[in-house]
UniProtKB/TrEMBL annotation:
UniProt keyword terms in alphabetical order: Lipoprotein, Membrane, Palmitate, Signal
UniProt topology in membrane: Lipid-anchor
UniProt superkingdom: Bacteria
UniProt-recorded name of the protein: YaeC family lipoprotein
Signal peptide: 1-18
Organism for this UniProt entry: Enterococcus gilvus ATCC BAA-350
Keyword Lipoprotein appears in the UniProt entry: yes
Length: 270
């Protein structure tokens, strides 16, 4: 009986020590990971600035690294040159993983989403687009797909029934007005409005260019399927620092700062 008591006591001690060790490791991890480099673009940098105080309140020292290209930003996370990224939506990240062999994950809870619209500086209504109109669409796989689906939803074109996603201009089976689709890098679509009849643009890029993002001819109908939150390497998604930095965007102060700057461009999930 005495031997059993000793064994139980030893197991209890091991459990307590293990629990203490786990807590100590979590605390140590949080203490050690103070400096966080986050990739962003010129638009999302403003969201990071709005959340900076909330990050600092948790003891972190964030550094924002601005990239002009979303692929380069995600590659920097994959290569370990930065700790995280905040700019790209989840389908874009999944596409990156598939195309580039990435191992990136998007943190939850998701922070917010935005939308895309079809804009024109030459035509005020969708039915004013002429036959053979030149229309810019985004050239990356996920946003090209979203652009074409938006135009199908509006009845402008019809896509093949043989697949559900990954559409390109080659999948258009009906194009009554013979629109000519020109693929352009997403950050350049706003500039293309000067030369083309219309362009699919993110609300964010329209806003950042000083344009009225609400002045679209049509807009996407599935914006909530494109969530944005902190992006990290898959091996880091359960780390305390990744959770803390992502949650920093969801504080009352951060949300107010984001809404004050962007005037409704982003919609928070909660």
């Amino acid at each position: 009986m005495k031997k059993v008591t000793v064994i139980v006591a030893m197991l209890a001690a091991v459990f307590v020590l293990g629990a203490c060790g786990t807590k100590k490791e979590a605390a140590t991890e949080k203490e050690e990971k103070k400096e966080i480099k986050i990739a962003c673009n010129q638009v999302s940098e403003n969201s990071l600035k709005a959340a900076k105080k909330s990050m600092e309140a948790e003891g972190y020292k964030p550094e924002f690294v601005v990239f002009s290209n979303n692929i380069e930003a995600l590659q920097a996370v994959q290569d370990g040159n930065v700790d995280a990224s905040f700019a790209q939506h989840e389908p874009f990240v999944k596409s990156f993983n598939k195309q580039k062999g990435g191992e990136l994950a998007m943190m939850t809870p998701h922070v917010y989403y935005t939308g895309i619209g079809l804009y024109s500086t030459k035509h005020d209504k969708i039915d004013q687009l002429p036959d053979g109109a030149q229309i810019a669409i985004m050239n990356d796989a996920m946003n090209r797909d979203n652009s074409l689906l938006m135009m199908q939803d509006a009845g402008l074109i019809k896509l093949t029934d043989e697949k559900k996603s990954g559409f390109t201009a080659l999948d258009i089976v009906e194009n009554p007005k013979n629109f000519n689709f020109v693929e352009i890098e997403q950050a350049q679509t706003v500039r293309s409005l000067e030369d083309l009849d219309a362009a699919t643009c993110f609300f964010t890029f329209m806003f950042n260019s000083g344009e009225n993002y609400k002045d679209y001819l049509i807009r996407d109908q599935h914006a909530t399927d494109f969530p944005i939150s902190l992006i990290v390497k898959d091996e880091n998604k359960d780390k305390a620092w990744a959770k803390d930095i992502n949650n920093a965007f969801l504080t009352k102060e951060s949300k107010k700062g984001i809404n004050d700057h962007f005037k409704g461009v982003f919609t928070f999930y909660d």
